[in-house]
Structures are given as structure tokens and as C-alpha cells.
Design a protein that fits this description.
Order of helices and strands: EHEEHEEEHEEEEEHEHHHEEHEH
Largest sheet: 5 strands, mixed
Distance between the termini: 40 Å
Strand content: 15-25%
Number of strands: 15
Helix content: 25-40%
Radius of gyration: 18 Å
Shape: globular
């Protein structure tokens, strides 16, 4: 990695249901974010034409056929034709949220940049942000919160622990089976060389290609896999700048926010944070976010 001039890509895995949120993300990047090589939108082939209108000089739409193996393919969900399943010969079908994670990992395994900033579709940048600040003196920012799972909503804790156990198995970590360290955020930086080393570790631990091993589990959290790899396998503090502070304020769960609630959430943006993330499954109207954020 060039310490003088690091390269950073922004990467978003999205789908048609999040299109308007993704459009707002793109507009906020264009207004507030600098220092990135390109913003890549990773989508299913069926959504490629829809997202093509967001493409530009520094934004590229990438269909998943460029990233994922031919044996993993999307088909209509027979129980709900509005949804998709990803089928493969190595286990149970996967959902869209699995496929989005696989696209991000697959991109990371082949990206030419020094680092990538993984951004969910429901992120909105509200302050000026140079992504090159994520790398300082050769160290890439890395978010981890010790015992952070103790702050998780109780009904979600079992899922997080399951993701941690699956990450341990994929990485060949015999002990501990799980960790209560939290790594998940809608906006996280990954060091390119570490993602590639993570892929090699998965292959060595499982005896399979990284993607072949990943599709075999439905307990999938790419942030947790990367986090446990950096903490427990790679162990190179000289290339990671560990911080518990997130880049954005996040509305993780709850009822859909109304206009006043969205405005208050934005007004209370913590110092040092560069934007917000309002989880799409809260069903908060993206038009309300757009107006409150000044993009109407």
C-alpha cells in the first residue's frame, strides 16, 4: 500500500427494493464525499438496467455475474414471486441479504484498491468526508466494539452469536467458539490485503474455495468474518487503526420515523460522524429522509 497516496473504493450492494435509498446515497456521495477512486454498485443481473441510470464518471454498476460463480444463480421465490432466492448445489437456498454480502466479499477478493468503504444503500452522507482519511500512516481504520453485543437488542442477540460462531468455523478458529465483540455497521472500511488474506484463510480452513465455503452457511455476516479474521487470525496492529467510534449515527430498529423524528435524528448527529443510516426494514419513508437531509 502506498502511504502517500492510498486508493479507496466505495462499494454498495443493493437491489430494486432499495433503489430510491440507493439513489439518495449516490446523491449524498456526489455532494459530500471526496478521495475515492470509484463508487461500485453491486446488483443482481435482473436489476442492472434499473441501476444503470445512477452510473457516471465515478460510479459503475457491476452485475453479480462478474463477481459470483456460475453455480450460484437467482430464481423467483416460489412462496413469494416478488422475492428472489439464490440456489446452488452445496446447501439450502440463500436470500437476497446473503447474496449482497457475497457480492461485497467477492468484490473485496479481487479489488485493485488499497481499501474499500462498504456502504449500505440506506446510508446518507451529511458532512464533508475524504475517504482517504480512513488510511493514515499505512493503517486502515477498523471498527470494533469490545463486548458490543451486550448492547444488542435481546431478540437479535442469538442471530449475532450465530454469525460469530459461523465466522469462527469458516476461519478455523477453535476457541473461542464465539465472541461478544461487535463489528457490524452499515458503513465500514476494509483493508484490501486483509480481505484477500481472509479469503485464503477460509480456503485453508475449509478445504474449499472461499465462496464455496461461504454459501454453505446461512448464518452469514461478512463484517463479523472480517472482524474476527483481523482480530484473531491476522493480528497485525501496525496495519489497522482500531476505533470503537462509528462513522455514522444509525437508527437500527423500531417503528417507521415520521418527518419530525427524522429531522430530530439528523439535527442530533454526533460530532465526528459524517452521516446517518436509517435501516430500510424500519420502513421509514426515504422521501422524508431526502427532504430532511436537504436533497428534496
Amino acid at each position: 500500500m502506498s502511504q502517500a497516496d492510498p486508493t479507496v473504493a466505495i462499494v454498495t450492494a443493493s437491489y430494486k427494493g432499495d433503489f430510491e435509498r440507493c439513489r439518495l446515497l449516490c446523491e449524498s456521495i456526489d455532494r459530500h464525499v471526496t478521495g475515492f477512486t470509484r463508487h461500485y454498485l453491486l446488483v443482481e443481473e435482473a436489476d442492472r438496467e434499473l441501476f444503470r441510470v445512477l452510473q457516471g464518471e465515478k460510479r459503475k454498476v457491476v452485475g453479480e455475474r462478474e463477481l459470483l460463480p456460475s453455480w450460484l444463480r437467482a430464481v423467483p421465490d416460489p412462496t413469494n414471486l416478488k422475492r428472489r432466492l439464490w440456489i446452488h448445489p452445496f446447501g439450502l437456498p440463500l436470500r437476497g441479504w446473503h447474496a449482497q454480502q457475497l457480492r461485497r466479499i467477492a468484490f473485496g477478493l479481487q479489488m485493485p484498491e488499497d481499501a474499500m468503504l462498504s456502504s449500505d444503500s440506506d446510508v446518507v452522507f451529511l458532512r464533508s468526508f475524504d475517504v482517504r482519511s480512513l488510511i493514515e500512516d499505512g493503517r486502515t481504520r477498523y471498527q470494533r466494539v469490545e463486548d458490543g453485543l451486550d448492547e444488542i437488542i435481546p431478540e437479535l442477540l442469538d442471530d449475532h452469536l450465530s454469525w460469530s460462531r459461523a465466522a469462527g468455523r469458516l476461519l478455523g478458529i477453535a476457541s473461542p467458539a464465539e465472541t461478544r465483540t461487535a463489528y457490524i455497521s452499515p458503513l465500514v472500511p476494509w483493508r484490501g490485503a486483509s480481505v484477500k488474506a481472509m479469503g485464503r484463510r477460509i480456503e485453508a480452513a475449509t478445504g474449499r474455495s472461499a465462496l464455496r465455503a461461504l454459501v454453505a452457511t446461512r448464518a452469514l455476516s461478512e463484517c463479523t468474518i472480517y472482524g474476527r479474521f483481523v482480530d484473531e487470525v491476522e493480528g497485525q496492529p501496525d496495519v489497522h487503526a482500531v476505533t470503537p467510534e462509528p462513522l455514522i449515527d444509525v437508527y437500527w430498529a423500531g417503528e417507521a420515523m415520521g418527518r419530525a423524528e427524522v429531522e430530530t435524528f439528523i439535527e442530533r448527529l454526533a460530532p465526528g460522524r459524517v452521516g446517518i443510516g436509517v435501516q430500510s426494514f424500519t420502513a421509514t419513508d426515504p422521501d422524508l429522509i431526502r427532504a430532511a437531509a436537504g436533497f428534496a
